[in-house]
Structure formats: structure tokens, C-alpha cells
């Protein structure tokens, strides 16, 4: 029996060479104060295992104390910096705010509906119909919808008449939209026809003619091509913005007449009334 097999022979103290960080008594590699091994994250030095000295791992230090890994966890506490548990399992004391929310009493349907409405109104003004549509999609009962929206009507949080006036002013002056296009947009947003008509009173025929001419003048600065092609494109542009055929044709004719001699000659041959009647099918 060799000396190494003699049970009476005292064993050598200290770790055996060739074992990766484990002592002769089978205990785990030395850990830091947090309880996590310095190689728990699987990282090592750039060269991996050293040739003769066994394996070595790179310790990372955050600030002045514990090691930290790439996932943002701190070895001082054993929890990620964002408050979760190691490995994403959640805090042992509950999942942050989720634990607190479980202790809160459930909110009433009215409270939920009011919160939804206020979030919508924070983005832009809304009509009553728009808010009702959102609440229906969120499965709020009809009774609660009526209750919440009636209250908002009373205190002026929602006001379809004010919404319509602001919408018309913004879209007419900002986008150059005519009455027909504006009326269609208000209808899509659930504004009552009578309320919409009152808001559209500020956009009369004279205002439409001025806005149409301003749009044409702006487009003519960069327009290229023969006068007849430019004429067709500009009339079509005004039609898409809701202008009647007569106003659109006159605006383009007058703008072309002031552009250059060639365009003026083409404009002189245009009969706005005849073209407008043809466009409307009269």
C-alpha cells in the first residue's frame, strides 16, 4: 500500500493543484461577502484558464465594495440594481409596486372611466362621441359612460361647440381646408350637425376664395410643366381640400394669368363657369 493510501498518514493541507478552485475538502471556491462566487456570472479573464496555475476568474468591483455582473446585479445585496430578485425571479417581499397594488381596494368602474377620459384629453381635446367610443372599447358600461360624460359636460371638461370652433379655425387656417372637408371631419368626430354648422359660419364663400388663392400661389412657386398640366394638378389639389369646382377653377385661372405670358394666354381661354358646370354634372 502506498503512503498515499495509508489512512494514518496525515493529509496534506491546502488545495490540490489541477482542481478548478476547489479545495481538497470539497468545499466550494471562495466566495465574496454577498454569497455569490466570483465566477457566478460565468466570466473569466481574457485568457481563460491559466496554463500552470489552474483557472482564474476576473472580479469586477462597483464603486468600492461588492462585485457586479453585466446584468446590473450587485453582490452586496444579491439583488439587481432595479429592485428585482437575482435571475429575474422578483423580490422576496412581493413584486415592487404590484405587492402594494394588491393591498389597495379595487377601483370603481366610474373611477376607471374618469381616468381613461383624462388620459385621452391630455393628448388633445375630444368630443363626447370620441370619449364614448374609447370607453365602449374598454368595456365600460353604458350607465357609467353616460354618468361620467354628463358630469364632464356640466363642468365644461368636454364641450363639443368649443371643440368644433377650435377645429375649424385650426384646420382652415393651418391646412387650408374648405367648408365641405371641415364638415366631414367634424361629422367623423361625432359633432352634431347643428353644432358643426354654427362653427362653419366663419368660413364663408369669400374666406374660401381667399384661402384657395393663397394655396395656389404657394404651390405655383415650385410648379413645373405646361400650363394645362399645372392647371389640372392645382384644381385637383383644391378639390381634395373640399373647395367647390367654381372657386377652385377661378383661383387657378387668376393665379396662372399673373404668372407669365404663356400661362396668361392659357388662362384667357378658360371658362370657369362652363368647367364648373361640367365638373358638377349640370
UniProtKB/TrEMBL annotation:
<comment type="function">
    <text>Modulates RecA activity.</text>
</comment>
<dbReference type="InterPro" id="IPR053926">
    <property type="entry name" value="RecX_HTH_1st"/>
</dbReference>
<feature type="compositionally biased region" description="Low complexity">
    <location>
        <begin position="21"/>
        <end position="47"/>
    </location>
</feature>
<dbReference type="GO" id="GO:0006282">
    <property type="term" value="P:regulation of DNA repair"/>
</dbReference>
<feature type="compositionally biased region" description="Low complexity">
    <location>
        <begin position="68"/>
        <end position="83"/>
    </location>
</feature>
<dbReference type="InterPro" id="IPR036388">
    <property type="entry name" value="WH-like_DNA-bd_sf"/>
</dbReference>
<feature type="region of interest" description="Disordered">
    <location>
        <begin position="1"/>
        <end position="112"/>
    </location>
</feature>
<protein>
    <recommendedName>
        <fullName>Regulatory protein RecX</fullName>
    </recommendedName>
</protein>
<dbReference type="Pfam" id="PF21981">
    <property type="entry name" value="RecX_HTH3"/>
</dbReference>
<feature type="domain" description="RecX first three-helical">
    <location>
        <begin position="113"/>
        <end position="151"/>
    </location>
</feature>
<comment type="similarity">
    <text>Belongs to the RecX family.</text>
</comment>
<dbReference type="Pfam" id="PF21982">
    <property type="entry name" value="RecX_HTH1"/>
</dbReference>
<dbReference type="InterPro" id="IPR003783">
    <property type="entry name" value="Regulatory_RecX"/>
</dbReference>
<dbReference type="InterPro" id="IPR053924">
    <property type="entry name" value="RecX_HTH_2nd"/>
</dbReference>
<keyword id="KW-0963">Cytoplasm</keyword>
<feature type="domain" description="RecX third three-helical">
    <location>
        <begin position="207"/>
        <end position="251"/>
    </location>
</feature>
<feature type="compositionally biased region" description="Gly residues">
    <location>
        <begin position="84"/>
        <end position="97"/>
    </location>
</feature>
<dbReference type="Pfam" id="PF02631">
    <property type="entry name" value="RecX_HTH2"/>
</dbReference>
<dbReference type="GO" id="GO:0005737">
    <property type="term" value="C:cytoplasm"/>
</dbReference>
<dbReference type="InterPro" id="IPR053925">
    <property type="entry name" value="RecX_HTH_3rd"/>
</dbReference>
<feature type="domain" description="RecX second three-helical">
    <location>
        <begin position="159"/>
        <end position="200"/>
    </location>
</feature>
